[in-house]
Design a protein that fits this description.
Helix content is about 5%, strand content about 40%. It has helices at about 5-15, 165-170; strands at about 15-20, 60-65, 75, 80-90, 90-100, 105-115, 135, 140-145, 150-155, 160-165, 180-185, 185-195, 200-205, 210-215, 225-230, 230-240, 240-245, 260-265.
Length: about 280
Amino acid sequence: MSEQLKQRTKKFALAVCIAFLMFGAARVRAEDWPQWRGPNRDGAWNETGIMKSFPPDGLKISWRAPVGRGWSSPVVAEGRVYVTDVQLALPKFTERVLCFDEASGKVLWSHPYAVDYPEWAVDPNAGGPRATPIVREGKLFTLGALGHLFCFDAANGKVVWEKSLAKEYEVKEFTGITASPLIEDGLLILYMCGKPAACVVAFDKNTGKEVWRALDDAFSYSSPIVIAEGGKKQLIVWTQEAVTSLDPPRERPGGEKCCARLETRRCPRRSSPTIGC
């Protein structure tokens, strides 16, 4: 690896930080943002009494904390902020799950674990966790860039269960771990493009046991959503091959119960599906 690349990596890691801004003199507890694109995965922010314009001298920074690099978004739940990153201390790579106090920025707990990144992933534009964590019922679920899946006690960081998707499902590094997980009817649902026929896999969120798997499509950067249409819930997954509707609570191994499937041009998708009229 070149010295120039090493310096770029260091500068990138030092430049990344989380900053929480105080919107006004009085701090009001805002609505939680516990998963990708918010409470309903629709990007809607329902706060009231927000500022109509920024003050001339800018927003006041409440706190900031340096973190490593990564592509996942922070999530906020029950007064805590969670984010995943990767630390590069060559030749070692360490992914981390971090928990901060929402009010003060104090680190409440962290969970580091060693990862074996390929050399090309050292480039600042390459390496780092992609999937945004999700919080539900006191548990935090995270997914690393190499397929390390964790369920934590969200309060203290204790590992409840964990899985290696690379070992169990032949998930490829980075390429299969791009979509953010969702939870529906007690199931932790991942769009991860595993093998065999494990493009979408649902796990019991309390135990990590597989409940069902479906599809044999290629990965994209699009995260799945659940909608209620046609008198039923539908899991919408946008792969390189198609937009597919699955039956989330009753899907079973060996029985891909597609409500509908629309073939699309084969190329990586980046946007999550949306529902509207």
